[in-house]
Write a structure and sequence with these properties.
Layout: E1 7-11, H1 17-30, E2 34-38, H2 45-55, E3 62-68, H3 73-79, E4 85-90, H4 98-105, E5 114-115, H5 120-134, H6 139-168
Parallel strand pairs: 1-2, 1-3, 3-4, 4-5
Helix pairs in contact: 1-5, 2-3
The structure holds 5-O-phosphono-beta-D-ribofuranose (RP5).
C-alpha cells in the first residue's frame, strides 16, 4: 500500500537538516508518513509558494517549516495554504536563532504560524505537535501520543530512582 506523506517537513537549506531530523524522528515514532524538502523563502520563492498552494490537494495535513537568520519560510508557506503551519527558528546565524525566532513568531494577524522553540527542542516539539494535529482524525496516532507521555514519565521516574539509589550508596 502506498504510504502517502501526511506531513511536509521543509527547511531553508541543507545546513538545517541536522536540526530538522528531530522532527522526522518524532514522526517516525508516531508512524506518520512525511516528505522532507529543501526550499527557501528568499532563494526559491516561487517554488515555496507553489509547494504551499498545492499541499492540501496532494494530501498533506500539516506543514513544518524550519529556517534560520531572516527566517521567512514558515510565514511564506502559511501565506499560500490553509493547512496548519508549524515554524522552527534555527540557530544558524551569528544571532543564534533569536533573529529567526522573531521573524517566525511575529506574524501579522490573519496568517498564523505555530512557532516552536529555537533549534532541536523546537524541531522535536514540531514533530509531536504535528502528531497532535493528525491525531484529531486518527485514533492510532492518538493512542501513540498517550503511550509517548507514559514512556516519558517512566523515563523521568527511572532517572529519579537511580539518583535516589546513588545518594544512598
Ligand atoms: C536560511 O539561512 C537557512 O534556513 C539556513 O538556516 C541559513 C543559512 O543557509 P546556508 O547559507 O547554510 O545555505 O535561509
Amino acid at each position: 500500500m502506498e504510504n502517502k506523506p501526511r506531513v511536509g517537513i521543509l527547511m531553508g537549506s541543507d545546513s538545517d537538516l541536522d536540526v530538522m531530523r528531530e522532527a522526522a524522528t518524532r514522526l517516525d515514532y508516531f508512524g506518520i508518513a512525511y516528505e522532507m524538502r529543501i526550499m527557501s523563502a528568499h532563494r526559491t520563492p516561487v517554488k515555496a509558494a507553489e509547494y504551499a498552494s498545492t499541499a492540501q490537494q496532494r494530501g498533506l495535513e500539516v506543514i513544518i517549516a524550519g529556517a534560520g537568520a531572516a527566517a521567512h519560510l514558515a510565514g511564506v508557506i502559511a501565506a499560500s495554504t490553509t493547512l496548519p503551519v508549524i515554524g522552527i527558528p534555527i540557530d544558524s546565524s551569528s544571532l543564534k536563532g533569536l533573529d529567526a525566532l522573531l521573524a517566525t513568531v511575529q506574524m501579522p494577524a490573519g496568517i498564523p504560524v505555530a512557532t516552536m522553540a529555537i533549534g532541536k527542542a523546537g524541531a522535536a516539539n514540531a514533530g509531536i505537535f504535528a502528531a497532535q494535529i493528525v491525531a484529531g482524525n486518527d485514533a492510532q496516532v492518538a493512542a501513540k501520543l498517550t503511550q509517548f507521555k507514559k514512556e516519558m514519565a517512566a523515563g523521568v521516574e527511572d532517572k529519579d530512582r537511580k539518583l535516589q539509589s546513588a545518594k544512598s550508596s
